[in-house]
Amino acid sequence: MGKVVTLILFGIIISTLSLRLQAQRTVTECVASVAAKHSEETVRNIANAAANVALNALTVNVLESQSVSNASLYDGSYSYFFEREAEDNTLGPTQVRVTAIGNYNSLTDTVVVLLTRPSFSRYAYFTNNENGIYFQTGDTVRGPTHTNGYFYMSGYPVFLGKVTSHLIYNAGSPYYPRPGVPTAPVFSGGTEWQVPTLTMPTAIPQDLIDASQAGGIYVNNAYAWVEFQDDGTVKIAAKSTSSPPAPGDYTTYNLGATNGVIYVRYTSFTLPTVFTKGTVDGRVTLASAGTIKITDNLVCEVNPVTNPASDDMIGITAAKNIVVTNNVGDQDRTIQATIMTMNPTASNTTNFYVENYSTTRYGRLHLYGGLIQQSRGAVGLTGSESTRKGYLKDYRWDSRLQNMAPPYFPMLFVLRKIAWWD
Q1: What is the mean pLDDT of each run of 10 residues along the chain (422 residues)?
Q2: How many Å is the Cα radius of gyration of the chain?
Q3: Complete edge-to-edge strand list for the sheet that includes strand 176-177
Q4: Is there a contact between 92 and 113 (Cβ–Cβ < 8 Å)?
Q5: Alpha carbon 83 to chain centroid, angstroms
Q6: DSSP string covering 160-183, please?
Q7: How many Cα atoms sit within 13 Å of 200 on the Cβ side?
Q8: How far is C-alpha 356 from the chain's CA centre?
Q9: Considering the entire predicted model, what is its pTM?
Q10: Cα separation of 371 and 127, whole Å?
């Protein structure tokens, strides 16, 4: 009997010890699991924090390129670096990739953020300053419309895209209504007032200039004539004087053999003047350190108005002015391009304006693409159909510009997130 009791007690002791060891092992495993989970969460938090630090640096300067290595955080460390098309040719010219790496307790975690820098070409109409010029009855703007100032309205202009402004005229009216004229603009696409300022550049961006010298067309002369042909070529003549060039002065370039960028500058104190017209087959951006004059219709070979699948696209940008010239009374003019001017001087005859806008009545200015300018120039003068001068505006946004832009067209000083991987 005593042996049986002893065996039973021994069994109980062994079982108790086994259960205690199992419990201790379970506790140890739980503690290790919690510690491992803590380390995993910490290293992930470090990597995400590093990504946010990098994004903050880009918020301050969209051109930021300085990487960071082994900075301390949460008893760990982080690093990050930026990549653009120059570092990885699979990236587009407007894209930036941020890679952030966190380290903690021998663990590593990586976060990758892909961003794009939107082009100004995404706007149907954009100004830094409206310069006291009115939208009037008969004007129609199709697409996103923005000013960093506030708008001037007369009568019943129509806006089919969203309209935004940084400033408002007063608490009772976001726009300035023309005195003595019944005014009620039609905002079919909605409105948003007092949005943040969207800063414009004041000179042709360096990346566009670099592109013209590396795969594009770079012209150095006081005057240039750029005539686009519907066979995918462009004829260019350059001279030191303004007298029209002879046929033999032109050189023909195949746009398909270039990156699509044409840039005209002059090394002296005289800013260049560029004359352009024609039909573009391909994608092109024509830029000038001075003024560009559009002397006739400027259109795409495959009309994007009737065929949204057109692969032809035109960007025109000038550090000074873009002028619509050679206008004919009561006749229309068609420009299928995104236009951008950067002249900080505000007057009726700076930035984008029509030659003789105040003396002759023209038809409609059909602009399909976009118009971006520092200060609004004059296209026409308000009045009845019999007394008005200049052009009526028919501005239509090219919806293809939601996802594409003319090559190396100037970009906004902001970034938009495309994807975040962690």
Answers
A1: 59 60 56 73 92 89 91 93 91 89 94 90 91 90 92 95 96 95 96 93 93 96 97 97 95 97 89 97 97 98 95 97 96 97 93 95 94 93 85 90 88 84 87
A2: 31
A3: 134-136, 152-154, 176-177
A4: no
A5: 19
A6: -S-EEES--SBTTBSSEEPTTS--
A7: 25
A8: 32
A9: 0.79
A10: 8
CA dist 67 and 84 (Å) reads: 13
Cα–Cα distances (Å) from 202 to 142, 187, 306, 343, in that order, read 26, 30, 34, 7
Position 374, amino acid: Q
**Buried b vs exposed e over 63-86: b needs ≥16 C-beta within 10 Å?**
ebeeeeeeeebeebbbbbbbbbee
End-to-end CA separation in angstroms for the chain: 68
Name residue 365's beta-bridge partners: 333, 393
Closest CA to 195 of 126, 273, 266: 126
What does the block give as tokens for 420?
Answer: 């975040």
Name residue 293's beta-bridge partners.
275, 323
Nearest alpha-carbon partner for 91 in 111, 115, 68: 115
**Cα–Cα distance for residue pair 35/100, rounded to 1 Å:** 24
Where does residue 105 fall: left (phi above 0), alpha (psi -120 to 50 degrees), or beta otherwise? left
